[in-house]
Design a protein that fits this description.
alpha+beta; Elongation Factor Tu (Ef-tu), domain 3; Threonyl-tRNA Synthetase, Chain A, domain 2; 2 domains; six-stranded antiparallel beta barrel; four-stranded antiparallel β-sheet; 41% strand
């Protein structure tokens, strides 16, 4: 069970190990439930430790949750621990990105976008979009949505912000807009046919 999808703010969890293998000083563990997201190109790897050991890889394989750790792990229960700072950075920025996508489509139509997130930078790329964009309007509307305390639900990769709209986004997000705290556009640049918007969200 992917607990991270429904309860992404849980930071520690004891999972049952259903199967394990050990090779080249790496333990590969299949767990029944997990708070770890599989590694992806979209959000930060926010796993910290599993059973006190360094996490090498997290992935989903044939519907099974597979965690690889450095060293030999022999117990039947394992404690999964997330990096709180990175998990909340993922939540703040992906949830803000969802709001941005909804307002972007509402004002400018269907525009392809990408989110880049690192530990110190975040920006949204608007692909093949070089028109002027009203950044102050985005700041105002997104912060209004945050203050409006709107529920957010995700089902089958479709995320809905109640009263605003839906967007395709299958990554972790908060269940309410107020949890984002705040949103601020920092800079806007052109890169060929693309527009790049740097922003800050969260605390």
């Amino acid at each position: 069970m992917k607990i991270y999808e429904k309860y992404p703010e849980i930071l520690t969890f004891n999972a049952k190990i259903e199967d394990k293998r050990f090779k080249n000083n790496i333990s590969q563990l299949i767990v029944d439930q997990t708070i770890f997201m599989p590694s992806n190109d979209f959000l930060l790897d926010d796993f910290l430790t599993a059973g006190g050991l360094e996490v090498i890889e997290v992935k989903e394989n044939k519907g099974k949750e597979l965690i690889s750790v450095k060293g030999k792990y022999e117990k039947d229960i394992i404690e999964l621990v997330l990096d709180k700072k990175l998990r909340y950075r993922n939540l703040y920025y992906n949830t803000a990105y969802i709001l941005f996508q909804i307002f972007l489509e509402g004002f400018y139509g269907n525009i392809k976008t990408n989110l880049f997130l690192s530990e110190d930078k975040a920006y949204i790329t608007l692909i093949n979009f070089t028109s002027d964009i009203d950044i102050e309007l985005f700041d105002e509307m997104i912060n209004y949505a945050i203050d409006s305390n709107l529920p957010i639900t995700t089902k089958a990769g479709i995320t809905e912000v109640l009263g605003l709209g839906t967007v395709i986004n299958s990554y972790i997000n908060f269940d309410n807009t107020y949890k984002i705290r705040n949103f601020k556009v920092l800079d806007i640049n052109r890169d060929g046919k693309n527009t790049i918007i740097s922003f800050a969200a969260g605390r």
